UniProtKB/TrEMBL annotation:
The keyword Transferase applies. Residues 2-165 form the N-acetyltransferase domain. The keyword Transferase applies. It comes from Glycomyces niveus. The lineage of its organism: Bacteria, Bacillati, Actinomycetota, Actinomycetes, Glycomycetales. This is GNAT family N-acetyltransferase.
C-alpha cells in the first residue's frame, strides 16, 4: 500500500509539493505506518481494490477526528475519507469509485454523516474525482505541514441528500 500511496503522491502532487520531498517518499512501509493500519479503532474501515492478484488501491474511512474523540464518536458524528489512493496506472478505471462507494455505504451504516474529505488545494486530479462523485466544497480550509512546508487544504463534503450508488 505504501508503493501505491507513493506513486499516487508523485503523480498527483507534482508541482504542488517540492520535488525533493516527493522523490524522498518511502517505497516500503515504515513500522509506524504498518502499526497504524493494524491498530485501527472500531469506527475505521480499510478497503483495498484488487486487479487479479495485485492490490491497485486502498482507502481508509473513519469519523472526523476534529469533531469527536474515539470515545465520543458514533452515530451523528461526521464521517471522513481519511485516505483514498489508487496507483496512477489504474486511474479512471473505476477502482477509486468502487472504494468510495463501499466506504460511503459503510459510513452511512455507522451513522457517520455527513462524509467529508480534505484535499490539497490545486490538486485538480483529486478535485475532479471527488466532484464527479458528488462532493462539494463546504468552505472550510486549513494548512497542513508537509516536510516543513505549510500547504493549503480545502474540505469537501457530500450533500445531505446524496445517496450511495448501487
Amino acid at each position: 500500500m505504501v508503493q501505491i500511496r507513493t506513486a499516487a503522491w508523485r503523480a498527483a502532487y507534482a508541482g504542488l509539493i517540492d520535488a525533493d520531498v516527493l522523490a524522498g517518499l518511502p517505497e516500503v512501509a515504515s513500522e509506524r505506518y504498518v502499526r497504524r493500519l493494524a491498530d485501527r479503532p472500531d469506527l475505521e474501515l480499510t478497503l483495498v481494490a484488487e486487479k487479479g492478484p495485485y492490490v491497485i488501491g486502498f482507502a481508509v474511512f473513519t469519523w472526523d477526528y476534529t469533531e469527536a474523540t474515539e470515545e465520543e464518536a458514533g452515530p451523528g458524528t461526521p464521517g471522513e475519507v481519511r485516505m483514498l489512493y489508487v496507483h496512477p496506472d489504474h486511474w479512471s478505471r473505476g477502482a477509486g469509485r468502487a472504494l468510495m462507494r463501499e466506504g460511503e455505504r459503510w459510513l452511512a451504516e455507522q451513522g457517520l454523516w455527513p462524509v467529508r474529505v480534505w484535499e490539497l488545494e490545486g490538486n485538480e486530479i483529486s478535485r475532479r474525482f471527488y466532484t464527479r462523485y458528488g462532493f462539494v466544497p463546504d468552505g472550510e480550509r486549513k494548512t497542513e505541514l508537509i516536510s516543513g512546508a505549510e500547504l493549503p487544504c480545502a474540505r469537501l463534503a457530500l450533500p445531505k441528500d446524496h445517496r450511495v450508488e448501487d
